[in-house]
Design goal:
about 30% strand, about 140 residues, 7 strands, seven-stranded antiparallel β-sheet, elongated, alpha+beta
Length: about 140
């Protein structure tokens, strides 16, 4: 299994997240952040597009044909926190697609507040105060 920030942008499959009527199946998720302290990943599911789907991040086979075979979307309303290393890790999505998925976290109205807060804390941690030097360099 992959761990650490090198997992960001990789695709994982999570069993038991299949579509209605196929709940025992799995969906593909993209890892968007890694929590090294708690050994968790923040993930966004990629689902088949349908009428009424969130239009924030539409994904086509031209974007990544290893990820989708038909028009799909980032289903931000189903974003999850999963235990790192407990899922099969696949390929890395193209950098431009990962950027679109991640940018959508702050754009979509369907992202749960807890997810936005956690994502922000992992991707933009507060800066630690530095040492203040005296003018003479000490």
């Amino acid at each position: 299994m992959t761990s650490g920030s090198s997992a960001i942008g990789k695709v994982i499959s999570i069993a038991g997240t299949g579509a209605k009527g196929r709940e025992s199946g799995s969906h593909k998720f993209v890892i968007v952040a890694d929590d090294p302290v708690n050994a968790d990943w923040l993930v966004i599911p990629i689902c088949s597009h349908h009428v009424g789907a969130d239009g924030t991040c539409i994904i086509s086979p031209a974007d990544d044909n290893s990820l989708v075979t038909r028009k799909s979307y980032a289903a931000y309303y189903q974003a999850k926190l999963v235990v790192r290393g407990s899922h099969t890790v696949g390929h890395v999505v193209p950098a431009d697609l990962l950027k679109r998925i991640c940018d959508g976290i702050n754009i979509s109205d369907e992202v749960e507040p807890w997810f936005k807060t956690k994502y922000e804390s992992l991707t933009n941690p507060p800066k630690k105060p530095g040492r203040i030097l005296r003018r003479d360099g000490e």
